[in-house]
Specification:
The protein has 205 residues and is an alpha+beta fold. The protein has a single domain, classed as Chemotaxis protein chec. Helices cover 46% and strands 29% of the residues. The protein is built from six helices and eight strands. Strands 1, 2, 3, 4, 5, 6, 7 and 8 form an eight-stranded antiparallel β-sheet that branches. Helix 2 packs antiparallel against helix 5. The longest helix has 26 residues. The chain is globular, with a radius of gyration of 16 Å.
Amino acid sequence: MQKNDESMSDFEFDVLTEIGNIGAGNATTALSQLINAKIDMYVPQVQMLSFSELAEIIGGAETLVAGILLNLTGDITGSMLFILESRDARRMVHQLMGYVKDGEELFSDLEVSALQEIGNIISGAYLSAISTLTKLTISVSIPSLAFDMAGAILSVPAIEFGKLGDKALLIESKFKDMDVDISGYFILIPTMESYGRILESLGLR
């Protein structure tokens, strides 16, 4: 757990960490219901990082990933990314659809739709938990899905929100489904103004 942001007190960071834990727990429950399998979640690792550091945490800028991006509007503005390594994305889709395919062939249109729906449901569950805790309204866009290197996918919110602040809240959520560990990364990128609103809603500012 790492703060890396001198403008935020340790207590404020601890509160954001707890929000991250609750959101990730909510998302895990939704995922478990979606794929009809018991899923355990390890304690999420929460860090406040610059965009340049995010790709390294995920495995390096050239790591192939599936990224599901949602734009946030309402009381909290910004972006949310759910990122899975390509192999883990395939495992999750196969679990949902009830089959296993060997090889690394391209995702079919049906599998892409399934992955979009997975991202939509679990990201929505995550944001719903934040909205309930803070009593703030969060509206989300239709999710966009991309398969690319981590550096390329992360460049989208970095360019859009870099002028508003270069920090993102990374929640690394590791799921255990039977004997398989799947690592997913929730990356919450509120504008700096939205960070303040979250803390104000909880009476911390």
